[in-house]
């Protein structure tokens, strides 16, 4: 089997199963609430997956949802789920060349799989209307939990022997909160942020600790 085709099929199947595993839990419900409270008419999701549950929940509130994802089979499902054939496409958001700007551009449960999330954020900002909103979540590098994850992975001699970047192979790209807040201020974004535990009352141990940012562009 072609290596690229095999990777795509495996990647697609993995994420479709993950979506079913996560379901529409309290964390996702709060993300929808944060996005919906900005009263958008049209939004764009980076890493839209199958469109469920977040895109679906927003659509049910009368919000038009566009988006992109690397997984082609997921995009086909998202188009069907959200009834949007033209606005949902397969590819990296960095390749977006359209002129449309959105009320909200968001990226949730995806940032830690993106090696350079700051570049992605710059693109998201450019796709947002003046005084529009950017919503995203990240894994907090400053957390003791993330430090423990790093240390446990680094101890694996197999990865050290092969010279493989642990972050790359596991897709765990943690973010330093000081650097992130400095980046947002530099880009003239007003923001609020919450830890996952604060907005849900508990933590998802598999992916903790997450921090959710709600940012607004200034003219």
Question: What does this entry look like structurally?
Answer:
The protein is built from 10 helices and 7 strands. The N and C termini lie far apart (51 Å).
Computed structural class? alpha/beta
Strand order of the largest sheet: 3-2-1-4-5-7-6
- Terminus-to-terminus distance: 51 Å
Largest β sheet strand count, sense and barrel closure: 7 strands, mixed
User: Strand-and-helix sequence, N→C?
Assistant: HHEHEHEEHEHHHHEHE
State Rg.
17 Å
Oligomer: single chain
The helix fraction, in percent, is: 40-55%
User: What ranges have pLDDT less than 50 throughout 5 or more consecutive residues?
Assistant: 157-169
Indicate the mean pLDDT. Answer: 83
Q: Secondary-structure blueprint of this entry?
A:
Blueprint: H1 3-22, H2 26-36, E1 42-46, H3 54-60, E2 64-69, H4 72-82, E3 88-90, E4 102-107, H5 117-126, E5 128-139, H6 144-154, H7 157-162, H8 166-170, H9 177-186, E6 189-195, H10 196-200, E7 210-217
Parallel strand pairs: 1-2, 1-4, 2-3, 4-5
Antiparallel strand pairs: 5-7, 6-7
Short characterization:
This protein has 10 helices and 7 strands.
Which tags fit this structure?
219 residues, alpha/beta, 10 helices, 7 strands, 21% strand, globular
